[in-house]
Write a structure and sequence with these properties.
- The complex is a heterodimer of chains A (about 240) and B (about 110).
- Chain A contains twelve helices and no strands.
- Chain A is mainly α and about 240 residues long.
- The N terminus of chain A is likely disordered.
- Chain B is extended, with a radius of gyration of 20 Å.
- With about 110 residues, chain B is mainly α.
- The mean pLDDT of chain B is about 90.
- Chain B has two domains: about 35 residues; about 60 residues, no CATH class.
- In chain B, about 80% of the residues lie in helices and about 5% in strands.
- In chain B, strands 1-2 form a two-stranded antiparallel sheet.
- The chains are: A mainly alpha (about 240), B mainly alpha (about 110).
- At the A-B interface, helix 2, helix 3, helix 5, helix 6 and helix 7 of A face helix 1, helix 2, helix 3, helix 4 and helix 5 of B.
């Protein structure tokens, strides 16, 4: 077992075996993000008058960081149910694109297993999965389950622990833990670019410039989550058109 | 450790609308074969969506003009550098958190 891990580390370009344990291991670098954001959500949840049970239900059933924060914010502000549900829907609509990107790698598995892969799709597991797919051109179901379940259970545990100790930690932001998520996106972006050939890399860098400009403009007209979604759709289309 | 029935329904509603967009593509690609152009389009999604999420965190949309959030933007530089240098997810996360903690405690 140990020699296998060593090989995986030393020769990252070759396809690794489809194993649950490897999926768990590949999840580890993202755990600090889940733990800190989940913990922060627990603290915020308690401050927003949510009970521990409600924090648990949200993290287990909704399982989406930004949506849960927005839920707590709207709930404490007394927003109507319809507004909370519609906002949650829009905030998480980007997962449609993520699932659509990852799903073609799993068509050989049963519908039920595909529902399982999809149900646990998050920004982070998406990032890890596409980085691996970019490197190895394939993904395994057991690996995906290992990645997903590790992330899922860590998230629930972190939210609940945050809720339990929330009353004693008034200011978790001071330690910069909320930035773990941004840092993770930066790293995943760099890892994805690192897989690209030189020609493609130039193309990608130009597209990232487009993302910056279009996102900036759209941010004036719509909530930021919608801006992210629409920017991605526009710039991916530009990418196809300008591809040589 | 309590909740109300209405709250439970609300959480279920939110769960349902977050679940649909995650799962539908997995069902969709099994029933219909995606056209080549869509597959080409999907190749661009990771870089576009990840960079959009990064930039979103740098923008401050609270004021009249959309500006850069100074703290996130300053922290972006060393974090990006560590990401490029180490190509490691965990080291980048630690570097980013550390930089922001320093900025918040000493400036």
């Amino acid at each position: 077992m140990t020699t296998e891990i060593k090989e995986v580390k030393d020769i990252p370009k070759t396809a690794t075996e489809d194993s649950f344990i490897q999926g768990m291991k590949d999840c580890i670098p993202t755990l600090l993000g889940y733990i800190s954001i989940g913990f922060a959500f627990g603290v915020v949840g308690i401050a927003s008058n949510l009970s521990i049970l409600e924090i648990f239900l949200l993290s287990a059933l909704v399982y989406a960081g930004s949506a849960q924060f927005i839920f707590a914010g709207l709930y404490v502000a007394g927003a109507p149910m319809s507004v909370i549900i519609i906002t949650t829907f829009i905030v998480n609509l980007r997962h449609f694109l993520m699932s659509l990107t990852v799903a073609p790698y799993f068509t050989r598995y049963s519908t039920l297993r595909n529902v399982g892969f999809g149900s646990l799709m998050t920004d982070e597991t998406f990032g890890v999965a596409v980085t691996k797919a970019g490197k190895e051109k394939q993904l395994g179901g057991r690996w995906m389950d290992g990645l997903n379940l590790t992330a899922y259970l860590t998230w629930i545990a972190s939210c609940v622990v945050g809720g339990l100790v929330g009353n004693w930690i008034p200011n978790p932001e001071r330690w910069g833990l909320d930035y773990a998520l941004v840092a993770m996106f930066i790293a995943l972006l760099v890892l994805n670019l690192a897989n690209a050939s030189k020609n493609k890399l130039m193309h990608y860098i130009k597209l990232i410039g487009c993302v910056f400009g279009i996102l900036y403009i759209l941010s004036y007209f719509m909530p930021s989550h919608l801006a992210v979604l629409i920017t991605t759709i526009i710039v991916a289309t530009i990418g196809v058109i300008t591809e040589k | 450790m309590t909740t109300t029935f209405m709250m439970f329904l609300l959480i279920l509603g939110c769960a349902f609308v977050t679940w649909l967009p995650r799962v539908i593509p997995f069902i969709l690609v099994r029933t219909i074969e995606l056209p080549k152009v869509v597959l080409r389009w999907l190749q661009f999604i990771p870089v576009c969506i990840l960079s959009a999420l990064v930039f979103q965190s740098l923008f401050n949309t609270e004021g009249k003009f959309v500006t850069l959030h100074w703290e996130s933007t300053i922290a972006f530089v060393p974090t990006l550098f560590i990401a490029l240098w180490t190509k490691s997810l965990s080291k980048t996360v630690v570097a980013g958190v550390f930089t922001v903690a320093v900025l918040r405690n000493f400036f």
